[in-house]
Design a protein that fits this description.
The complex is a heterodimer of chains A (87) and B (482).
Chain A lengths: L3 E6 L2 H11 L2 H9 L3 E6 L16 E3 L2 E3 L4 H16 L1
Parallel strand pairs in A: 1-2
Antiparallel strand pairs in A: 1-3, 3-4
Chain B lengths: L5 H18 L3 H6 L1 H5 L12 H15 L13 H10 L8 E3 L11 E4 L10 H5 L5 E4 L2 E4 L9 H5 L5 E4 L2 H5 L5 E3 L5 E3 L9 H5 L5 E3 L3 H9 L4 E5 L11 H10 L4 E4 L1 H20 L5 E2 L4 H9 L14 H12 L4 E6 L3 H8 L5 E4 H10 L18 H4 L6 H10 L7 E5 L3 H13 L7 E5 L15 H12 L8
The chains are: A alpha+beta (87), B alpha/beta (482).
């Protein structure tokens, strides 16, 4: 099975709007899902340029974009993907 | 309340939009349009009863971002006029905080309440344990007579079904000095004679009803007028953004600041002076000395804790020394302290050498508005490199450690850390002053916020990661005692 790739945007906009909290996922995700996921902090995913900064911070779980991302919403998306992958 | 919540998110979004409006070619009109841009016709109404109230509250928030007081504000004045008035203002407003009455929920007063989970049991431990006879059984279930209840919470502890809860008013409960209470309509009101500007109410209000009055427009205007505006960055700033302080300097220069200096430079002076003072006081037989660099604590001593004033160090704050250096170098310079908290705004208002304060949220909003990608910037060196100890001032224990390091073994330093001002720690400090002794140490470091300045109400990063970033950064800095 391919690893699920999680990208956390640490660009200026996302960081100011709350991505600082998302950094916790760098430790949480491997603890929770082992080697099924790969987490990476990206400089800027360039998602904020097309819409309002009100939707930041952004994260990506494979090709799914999560706006107003929180630790919980990212974990939920990873869980959903893992479950779908098993079916 | 967790920093990551929608009320803080909303406040930051508004700051970004206000700054963008200032940078645009029509400040007044673009400010007026912000509520409509954020809640366009037919859009979802996420928080309030209707779109009109949503927009009106956003309008109130923008007025605070423009630096005005909402208490007694005139509803008829257009946002565009407020924007214009902000440009004409000579000095920032006197008080640092403002309550948006319209955004305030008017929470039910603090009280103990029996929920529907009450099973009407036979044991009735709530009834048996209430010392004040406030509980009676009505229709087979417990009920509390609020005129008799003393909020002792005994019934909550003994109920086997967890059916009794304590309803709290977050702002009132968190305020360490009882400066916030309800007016006749039940809305929050700040008593500025008592308020120590600690910013705790700003952080906890779930409705985001308490705002800091921003000075960001005043600062940007000075830059636009071609003045030399110097940013003095507080030590806690390292780790607040995804870049180091050298890249941060580049970013601030890009925004038009003429120079950027580390307040850690002033912290080094504070540490040395305070170490000298500590040594003298100990030789004179003083039982203990408290630090004096936290603005929230200084306000607390000045307004509520005069008994501890003789024990407080006379040494000035890092901001004081840094601003002095900047003004000596160029008396025409406009000095801006870049701050983790609102308390420093109150300190700056009393110090003629500090012209303005920009908090970390406002600084972050500024970078977003300018579309500055911090991590891609080249570093800019500082004229004066500060010490490891000075750069650690913003972490709990950092001030005490630097005084100890600057003392360099001359005195016997035993530090006691007061990590956060609350009712309990105020009682403890009162006790030390009354007894004239502190059994836990002779150097009492007082930090108003838990974790130190990195826990300030305007910080962008979490205390844990910010502390780690500062430690990683400072480990290679030079020691103070060399």
């Amino acid at each position: 099975m391919n690893k699920i790739k999680v990208k956390l945007c640490m660009g200026t906009t996302c960081f100011v709007m709350g991505a600082s909290e998302l950094q916790e996922l760098v430790d949480i995700l491997p603890e929770k899902f082992g080697d099924k996921v790969e987490v990476q902090c990206a400089t800027c995913l360039d998602l904020c340029s097309s819409s309002s900064e009100g939707q930041a911070p952004y994260a990506m779980v494979d090709y799914t974009v999560i706006s107003k991302a929180t630790v919980e919403s990212v974990i939920n998306e990873v869980e959903r993907k893992l479950k779908n992958g098993q079916e | 309340m967790d920093k990551n919540n929608q009320a803080t998110h909303l406040k930051k979004e508004i700051l970004i939009k206000t700054i963008k409006a200032f940078l645009s070619n029509d400040f007044g009109e673009n400010t007026r349009l912000i509520p409509f841009e954020m809640r366009p016709k037919g859009s979802e109404v996420p928080y309030r009863c209707c779109i009109y109230k949503e927009r009106e509250i956003l309008r109130n928030r923008i007025i605070a971002s423009l630096g005005f007081t909402m208490e007694g504000a005139d509803d008829r004045v257009l946002l565009s006029s407020y924007a214009q008035k902000a440009l004409e203002r000579e000095k920032p407003d006197e008080h640092t905080l403002t309550v948006l009455e319209l955004a305030c929920k008017g929470c039910v007063p603090n009280r103990i309440f029996v929920t529907d989970l009450c099973q009407g049991c036979v044991a009735r431990p709530c009834l048996e344990n209430c010392k004040f006879g406030a509980i009676s059984i009505v229709n087979g279930k417990s009920q509390i007579d609020s005129s008799k209840c003393k909020n002792c919470t005994k019934c909550i502890q003994v109920c086997p079904y967890y059916a009794i809860v304590k309803l709290v008013v977050p702002c009132e409960s968190v305020c360490p000095v009882d400066a916030i209470s309800k007016d006749e309509q039940g809305h929050a009101r700040i008593d500025f004679d008592k308020c120590i500007s600690c910013g705790k109410c700003v952080s906890v209000c779930p409705f985001g009803a308490i705002h800091e009055k921003s000075q960001i427009i005043d600062i940007l205007l000075k830059i636009r007028q071609g003045k030399k505006v110097v940013a003095m960055i507080a030590p806690s700033i390292a780790g607040q953004l995804p870049c180091n302080i050298y890249q941060l300097k580049t970013a601030l220069l890009k925004c038009g600041f003429s120079d950027v200096v580390e307040v850690a430079q002033g912290a080094d002076i504070t540490a040395k002076n305070e170490a000298k003072e500590f040594n003298e006081r100990m030789q004179e037989g003083a039982p203990f000395m408290t630090t004096s660099c936290c603005a929230g604590y200084n306000n607390l001593v000045d307004k509520h804790l005069s008994e501890i004033a003789p024990y407080r160090s006379e040494t000035k704050t890092p901001m004081y020394y840094t601003a002095e250096i900047c003004k000596q170098k160029d008396p025409e310079a406009v000095t801006v302290f870049v701050s983790p908290c609102v308390a420093k705004k109150s300190e700056a208002l009393k110090n003629p050498n500090v012209d303005y304060v920009m908090n970390y949220e406002e600084m972050g909003a500024l970078f977003v508005a300018y579309k500055i990608e911090l991590s891609e910037l080249e570093p800019t060196p500082f004229e004066v490199e500060s010490s490891r100890e000075g750069r650690n001032f913003g972490i709990t224990g950092g001030v005490a450690k630097s005084v100890e390091a600057a003392d360099n073994g001359k005195s016997e330093v035993k530090a006691h850390l007061v990590n956060g001002i609350n009712k309990e720690s105020i009682r403890a400090l009162k006790g030390f002053a009354k007894k004239g002794e502190c059994e836990f140490g002779n150097l009492i470091e007082v930090m108003c916020c838990e974790g130190g300045c990195v826990g300030g109400n305007d910080c962008l990063n979490t205390v844990r990661t910010a502390t780690k970033s500062i430690n990683d950064f400072t480990k290679d800095s030079k020691p103070i005692a060399e």
